[in-house]
Design goal:
- The chain is of the alpha/beta class and 412 residues long.
- The protein has two domains: 160 residues, Response regulator (Rossmann fold), CATH 3.40.50; 198 residues, Hypothetical protein af1432.
- Helix content is 49%, strand content 7%.
- It is built from 14 helices and nine strands.
- Strands 4-3-5-8-9 form a five-stranded parallel β-sheet, sandwiched between helices.
- Strand 6 and strand 7 form a beta hairpin.
- Keywords: Coiled coil, Phosphoprotein.
């Protein structure tokens, strides 16, 4: 014959199954229900003692109590209980107002609150319920009711804590995975860019420098942070099309025949063919702001669209005499105009196995002479404004054989 379950007050150990604030991967210490911190706020010391005695008999031991009702709110906040037993009608304080204040504080919005009141007024009950009171107990408190109601409240708190910690763990995992993905993406792009440069007897630092220069120029132009980050990566791929240029021409020492130079020039088209299939579209339909000329917002395809555009347009010239499309002025995508300055400066200022680096002032004067013909004047101004940072990048990513190519600190 089935028997009625024993009351919680009779079997305190039966309440220990669920942990408070416990989560599978959380560093927070699991707290058993019986260890939950119970706070009792009542202006009558005897009421506090009676409630505490009943709960102690049920196995609870973690208490905070106060009869200083004027400072009750501060005491509750300082104690951070797992459940609150709150009187309503108190001198110097009103339980409803305390409850309202608590619900306005992020850490207390879901705190279980059991209202202890001698007032059976329906309007008081309604006010408390609207503010999220968990339960009501009419004074004098029935000890048979108190412990199970406190247990239920603590179990609810336990579930809330578990859910909260699970959500936090999930958010942390997502952030970590996103960071891992971003790091992988950067590494893959760099490897691809470096593969192309190594065919050209370069160290791989050229692509990093061009990317960093492009980012610095974009920053000086006041472009959004995401665009600065993306162009720094995308510009590293500017010469990826060299992968498909025959060795006999790409690696030929000395001057190239016009026909051979024409083959070299195909690297912009080849690079575009390599990158473009991985873009969502070619960017022509992307919204661009009227002045900044960069896409208004970032999306999952922004980076590769930028890279495709750069591979195709970094040899265009502002006066229309460049290749492959012969675009002029602001018909050349901004990223192409930016990368053109970055690429030419690095080619001039860096040592290669077959040439010495050009003195910095000479590099600057060559860029200046091409203002408005090869280079967009506004982009060139941004380059010169970024020179202090550009010199730091040159020093940081100096080619290993480039011992004499350190930036000339005295000539800038
Ligand atoms: Fe190129």
């Amino acid at each position: 014959m089935p028997t009625s379950p024993p009351s919680a007050a009779q079997t305190p150990q039966s309440q220990t199954a669920l942990p408070l604030a416990a989560a599978s991967t959380s560093a927070a210490r699991p707290v058993e229900v019986l260890d939950g911190k119970i706070m009792i706020v009542d202006h009558e010391p005897v009421n506090v003692l009676v409630a505490k005695k009943h709960l102690q008999a049920a196995g609870y031991s973690n208490f905070e109590t106060t009869v200083d009702t004027a400072n009750a709110l501060q005491s509750i906040i300082a104690a951070g209980p797992d459940v609150l037993l709150l009187d309503v009608n108190m001198p110097n304080a009103n339980g409803i107002e305390i409850l309202r204040e608590l619900r306005n504080r992020p850490g207390f919005r879901h705190l279980p609150v059991l209202i202890l009141t001698a007032n059976d007024d329906a309007s008081v009950k309604l006010s408390c319920l609207e503010l999220g009171a968990t339960d009501f107990l009419i004074k004098p408190v029935d000890p048979m009711e108190l412990a199970p109601r406190v247990r239920n409240a603590l179990q609810n708190k336990c579930f809330q804590d578990q859910l909260q910690h699970h959500t936090e763990d999930l958010e942390e995992t997502i952030q970590q995975r996103t960071a891992d993905l971003e790091r992988s993406r950067r590494e893959v792009i760099y490897c691809l860019a470096r593969a192309a440069e190594l065919r050209d007897n370069d160290t791989g630092n050229h692509v990093i420098r061009v990317g960093r220069f492009a980012g610095l120029i974009a920053g000086q132009l006041g472009l959004p942070d995401w665009y600065v980050e993306d162009i720094e990566l995308a510009a590293q791929l500017h010469d990826v099309g060299k992968i498909a240029v025959p060795d006999a021409i790409l690696l030929k020492p000395g001057r190239l025949m016009p026909s051979e130079f024409a083959v070299i020039q195909t690297h912009v088209k080849l690079g575009h063919q390599i990158i473009k299939p991985h873009t969502i579209n070619d960017g022509s339909s992307r919204r661009r702001s009227s002045y900044e000329e960069c896409p208004i917002e970032r999306d999952s395809g922004s980076l590769m669209r930028l890279a495709a555009s750069i591979t195709q347009t970094h040899h265009e010239k502002f006066d229309g005499s460049g290749y492959p499309l012969g675009l002029a002025g602001e018909d050349i995508p901004l990223e192409g105009r930016i990368t053109a300055v970055a690429d030419v400066y690095d080619a001039l200022a860096s040592e290669r196995p077959y040439k010495k680096p050009m003195p910095r002032e000479k590099c600057f004067s060559i860029l200046e002479e091409s203002r408005g013909s090869h280079f967009d004047p506004r982009v060139l101004d941004a380059f010169f404004a970024a020179v202090p940072e550009i010199l730091k990048v040159q020093a940081e990513y100096r080619d290993h054989y480039n011992h004499d190519a350190a930036p000339d600190a005295g000539s800038a």
